[in-house]
Q: What sequence folds into this?
């Protein structure tokens, strides 16, 4: 059996027409936006520096082995991946032109884009890919890295992976790695890997449309146009600047004074207010919020299925979503939103019912309720307080543990928690997030607190090894239903991810995903 994972001919043709990928890189000439506007009004034009403000900022830009999610966001203009997503969640080529898997031989062959260079002038090739993957493997930061037996360079632009296991998500898991220049990394340390790492934390040398020329942590990032970018005549901007403005009101005031062009990481209430002021706001998919029970501990109340059921009945999720999300959040009745390929239509196994929750608690031996705790971070304080009230109504007395970021992340992603954790997980358009967060070998909730039944894990296995899309998504629906029927976790709502911009800015960010920013296509009208 042989599975070929090559996107559609139409997508490839569009990409090849726009890149000229088999030729040496050209040097696009930037033009004045006003002059260009006179020649072609309404069409994208070159020039200008995009001024971005945000309420959150990265710590690391060029050392992916230590990336947090927000670091990926800010490195995107400089560092590229082998693959990306389109709006439908289909994998599309970026630094890879195509990829082919053989389930029987357990190999994946990557054919790389030619004529691509890192911004230090060195070539993107199979040796560079091998170096990047080997670095992630040493750091334990390559998803499914334990399945990699060897990496074979076939020629300058072909690399073959030899694997001990093979499943459908590996194309995504391996292809999602961002690529940095091996030469720049090694030169920076002069042979000392620790010095190279320290340098790379503040410097990102990739193949992207922009190069980072200044990084002041918690202050400023400056990007300049990559004049030798492989996508012909792109990017449009001469450069970009990102500034940390922790206060949303100050950031909004800067937008109103036209001191900034784009406002990212904006909260929903501010975004709605800015829409009323006439700013453009893009709404992208946010995060899946859930209560995670410590159900694997036999001494925990949540080891009892009836108690987990009671939690779901106790929470008015539509009201909670309206209150926290100002009407922009989607309440959940299952571990999937309506746009998710695994969504089960008209499946609401436990609607809000206080009497039913009390009945189940009594049947489990908690007729007088019990005391528990919810760990959350400062951002989730309001949601945690609302949950405290809902659970209190059925006799569960909740102590809120509002932890600092470091302690919260350690508890949720590494060390574990005692009672309940209020946590967010990303939502991917191709549904890979279900495995990343809740699969048999999760990337995020690795603590072991969440008990998973043999039936659920068997469905995970079946989905991973079902290679046709229709069959795969059919199994996903069964997975979602199984998780819901077991009350494995308590899904609450899906957030929204708004981005505000001046009327003269043209961008689709973050409509697909927070880490999909096609900044090379963004442009500004004359203003």
A:
């Amino acid at each position: 059996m042989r599975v070929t994972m090559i996107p559609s001919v139409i997508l490839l043709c569009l990409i090849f027409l726009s890149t000229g990928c088999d030729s040496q890189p050209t040097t696009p000439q930037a033009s004045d936006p006003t002059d260009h506007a006179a020649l072609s009004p309404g069409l994208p034009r070159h020039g200008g520096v995009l001024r971005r403000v945000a309420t959150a900022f990265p710590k690391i830009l060029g050392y992916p082995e230590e990336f947090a999610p927000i670091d990926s966001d800010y490195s995107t203009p400089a560092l590229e991946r082998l693959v990306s997503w389109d709006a439908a969640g289909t994998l599309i080529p970026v630094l890879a032109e195509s990829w082919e898997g053989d389930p029987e031989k357990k190999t994946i062959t990557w054919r790389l884009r030619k004529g691509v260079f890192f911004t230090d002038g060195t070539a993107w090739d199979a040796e560079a890919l091998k170096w990047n993957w080997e670095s992630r493997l040493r750091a334990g930061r390559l998803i499914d890295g334990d399945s990699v037996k060897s990496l074979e360079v076939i020629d300058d632009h072909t690399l073959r992976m030899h694997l001990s296991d093979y499943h459908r998500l590996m194309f995504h898991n391996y292809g999602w790695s961002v690529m940095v220049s091996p030469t720049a990394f090694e030169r920076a340390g002069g042979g000392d890997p620790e010095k190279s790492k320290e340098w790379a934390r503040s410097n990102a040398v990739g193949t992207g449309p922009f190069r980072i020329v200044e990084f002041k942590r918690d202050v400023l990032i400056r990007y300049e146009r990559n004049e030798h970018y492989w996508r012909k005549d792109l990017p449009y901007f001469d450069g970009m600047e990102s500034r940390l403005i922790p206060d949303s009101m100050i950031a909004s005031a800067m937008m109103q004074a036209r001191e900034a062009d784009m406002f990212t990481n904006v909260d929903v209430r501010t975004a709605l207010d800015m829409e009323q002021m006439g700013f453009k706001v893009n709404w992208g998919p946010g995060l899946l919020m859930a209560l995670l029970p410590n159900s694997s501990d036999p001494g925990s109340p949540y080891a009892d299925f009836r108690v987990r059921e009671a939690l779901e009945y106790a929470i008015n999720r539509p009201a909670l979503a309206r209150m926290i999300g100002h009407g922009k959040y989607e309440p959940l009745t299952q571990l999937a939103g309506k746009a998710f390929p695994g969504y089960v239509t008209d499946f609401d196994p436990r609607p809000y019912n206080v009497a039913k929750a009390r009945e189940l608690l009594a049947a489990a031996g908690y007729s007088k309720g019990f005391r528990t705790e919810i760990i959350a971070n400062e951002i989730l304080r309001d949601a945690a307080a609302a949950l405290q009230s809902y659970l209190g109504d059925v006799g569960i007395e909740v102590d809120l543990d509002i932890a600092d970021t470091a302690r919260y992340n350690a508890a949720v992603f590494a060390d574990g928690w005692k009672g309940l954790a209020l946590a967010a997980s990303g939502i991917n358009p191709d549904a890979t997030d279900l495995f990343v967060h809740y699969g048999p070998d999760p990337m995020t909730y690795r603590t072991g607190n969440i008990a998973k039944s043999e039936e659920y894990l068997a469905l995970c296995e079946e989905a991973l090894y079902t290679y046709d899309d229709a069959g795969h998504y059919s199994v996903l629906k069964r997975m979602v239903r199984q998780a819901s029927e077991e009350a494995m976790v308590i899904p609450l709502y899906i957030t929204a991810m708004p981005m505000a911009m001046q009327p003269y800015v043209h961008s689709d960010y973050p409509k697909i995903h927070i880490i999909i920013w096609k900044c090379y296509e963004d442009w500004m009208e004359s203003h």
Observations:
- The domain at 285-496 is CATH 3.10.105.10 (Dipeptide-binding Protein; domain 3).
- Confidence is low (pLDDT under 50) at residues 1-40.
- The radius of gyration is 24 Å.
- The chain has 17 helices and 22 strands.
